[in-house]
Amino acid sequence: MPVYDPDEHEILQEKSSMTRGGEQYFKGTLYLSDKRLIYEEKGHRGFIHAHPAKILLDLPLYLIINISTAVPRIKLGTKKTLSVEFVTDKGDDRATFVLKDPEKWKKEMERWTTDAKRRHDQEEKLKLEEQRRREIELARAKAPTANIGMYINAGKKEDGKNIPKFIESAVSEEKENIFEGQEQPALPRTKKCPNCGKDIPADSVYCPYCGFKQP
Questions:
Q1: Alpha carbon distances (Å) from 107 to 32, 74, 214
Q2: 3-class SS at 174?
């Protein structure tokens, strides 16, 4: 018996034979859940080795593209079949099952296949939206450093044209703003001695070089 997901529910099951790709399997069981179509071959014991049960088909319902039935007019000794066409990585494929009431299986499969495709489309849409959201967040995370090392217009003009300013980094710009806000220390005032011509402090009474009294 197949292992179902916690939120998966079995709809139908029936002993059946399956034909797929030219191979025919006689002893097995077909299962239909609200998510998958599963065919399990029955295990058996041989003279030397035992063969456990094997899952030969595990098909998500959203991959099914067509369901058809074949019910012969002469019912005695004839086989009623259900054919399922589906998509695989290698292309389209088909599996045919012999069932007692294939019309019942077709009806249930069409119902749950439609629901499975709708849920699959919603999940794919959510995945795409999540991927786009992550790409936007990644772009925003890189945005603060995107203009480092680039020229921008500093707002100064010369002959009517903007003069570009090179930004090395946000840190250097911050330091520049700090220095601009500080007052530069004033240089001491001087005067020339009328006797020797040397620069002396402006408040000097006598020249420190020649001793001349300042006027």
A1: 12, 22, 121
A2: helix
How does DSSP classify residue 206?
B
Tens digits of per-residue pLDDT, 108-134? 999 999 999 999 999 999 999 999 999
pTM: 0.61
Which helix or strand (DSSP H or E) is residue 199 part of? strand 199-201
In angstroms, rounded to a whole number, what is the distance separating the alpha carbons of residues 98 and 96? Answer: 7
| Whole-number Å distance between alpha carbons of 19 and 16 | 10
Q: Is the pLDDT of residue 29 over 60?
A: yes
φ, ψ dihedrals at 63, nearest 5°? -90, -5
Tokens representing 83 are 């054919």
Residue 62 DSSP one-character state: G
* Distance separating alpha carbons of residues 12 and 29, to the nearest angstrom: 10
